[in-house]
Specification:
Largest sheet: 7 strands, mixed
Number of helices: 8
Strand order of the largest sheet: 4-3-2-1-5-6-7
Structural class: alpha/beta
Strand content: 15-25%
Shape: globular
Helix content: 25-40%
Order of helices and strands: EHHEHEHEHEEEHHH
């Protein structure tokens, strides 16, 4: 998993409440268990018209936001079904951070397991960051996980809280498999000791 420490990138405003996982990645894209290739389906029902052409009104289709790495979104982001394809699609598109006032629990935890930083801020702070994100070509934020702050283009900053263990995992690029591999020497020592004590096992 890619490490996350400091990210400076374009922030796209998505001031929609209750964006559920079906909006993030519709059900027709769930046939694969690969984590790649899902970026094309991200927000597809809002990004594309029925004929497959781009919807020019959707934020990620606007030239200033096509390479956005941060989303500033409305309350209750990631609600609905527990599909892990939702963070996979965000990451495959290039989104490394989502900022909102609240997240659905399962989506929130799935983000950390896939190298995405979900940040919870107050409604007042979200309004400031949404204003920054609405600046188009100047909508650049710096997300500093080490110091737990988001810095705006004018130098203002917003602090955020994060669980220390989840922070450790992101800073070190550790998903569930990575955490297990950290214990590999202890596991190997146990297996060697156990094999000597119980050769019949």
């Amino acid at each position: 998993m890619q490490k996350f420490d400091v990210l400076t990138g374009v922030a796209a405003p998505l001031p929609i409440l209750n964006i559920d996982t079906d909006m993030i990645i519709p059900k027709q894209y769930l046939k694969t268990i690969k984590r790649t290739g899902l970026g094309k389906g991200l927000f597809s029902e809002m990004r594309y018209r029925e004929d497959g052409s781009e919807n020019p009104d959707f934020v990620l289709n606007k030239s200033a936001y096509r390479k956005a790495e941060i989303l500033v979104a409305g309350d209750n982001f990631g609600c609905g079904s527990s599909r892990e394809h939702a963070p996979w699609a965000l990451l495959d598109y290039g989104i490394r951070c989502v900022i909102s006032t609240s997240f659905a629990d399962i989506f929130y935890n799935n983000c950390f397991k896939n190298g995405i930083l979900p940040i919870v801020v107050s409604p007042d702070d979200l309004k400031k960051l949404m204003d920054d994100a609405e600046r188009g070509a100047n909508a650049t934020l710096t997300v500093d996980l080490v110091n737990q702050v988001v810095k705006g283009p004018d130098g203002g900053q917003v602090s955020f809280e994060i669980d220390p263990f989840k922070k450790h995992c992101l800073l070190n690029g550790l998903d569930d498999i990575g955490l297990t591999l950290e214990k590999a020497p202890a596991i190997a020592a146990f297996e060697t000791k156990n094999a000597a004590a119980h050769p019949w096992a």
